[in-house]
């Protein structure tokens, strides 16, 4: 494996399970020490805790910090833990929640919870990280995990789409704000990825929805967490030194091919 990230300390929110677990281990595989920030240390899919895997499988330092990203004190604890490892240089805002709710059934509590976790959390995590990087005169990378639902609206997830659209535009604004300090900000926008969240929270893999989605995807499958980990690795690595304020869509070509497909069918 390359040592592209040998001098880096990464913070991954929601890093214990699913995409966050794959992101954490992929960054460690290429040399980063990793602070896993999550509400629980046990992976939803089972197995060793992610921070332990970072150490046992990849020989990097791993730390777990219990963190609800809407809690400012807990967020600050995360970046204090990163300072103890040498200081954050990579932040991955992966923590987030989704929904399968019709618009007329959405409540104020639904709205507040989704926007707090998916927008407020990444905003202040980025602020904490940027403050540490700027104070240390340290260049770095922030990668937000958005969604294709922030590009193409989803009718059974209006608040979710709004939150991921906000995160995508926040990415562009942060890139403009932090670029002069040598801090790059980009996002990864996944399509459907097979994780515990899509299994258990959305129930996608208990119906034919995932098969239908895969059938509409040029590459013929849904995403895997490692696909997201690899995309984050690219954006965090020296390979992307001149990439700033961009959205990397990781969906097998589904989003940009649906329009062509439908027009041919008409």
UniProtKB/TrEMBL annotation:
Has the keyword Transferase been applied to this entry? Answer: no
Q: Which Pfam families match?
A: adh_short_C2
Q: Which domain of life is it from?
A: Archaea
Extract the InterPro entries matched here: NAD(P)-bd_dom_sf, Sc_DH/Rdtase_CS, SDR_fam
Q: Do you know which CDD domains this protein is assigned to? A: SDR_c (cd05233)
- What NCBIfam families has UniProt attached to this entry? PRK07231.1
Which protein family is it in? Belongs to the short-chain dehydrogenases/reductases (SDR) family.
The name on file for this protein is: SDR family oxidoreductase
Annotated organism of origin? Natronosalvus rutilus
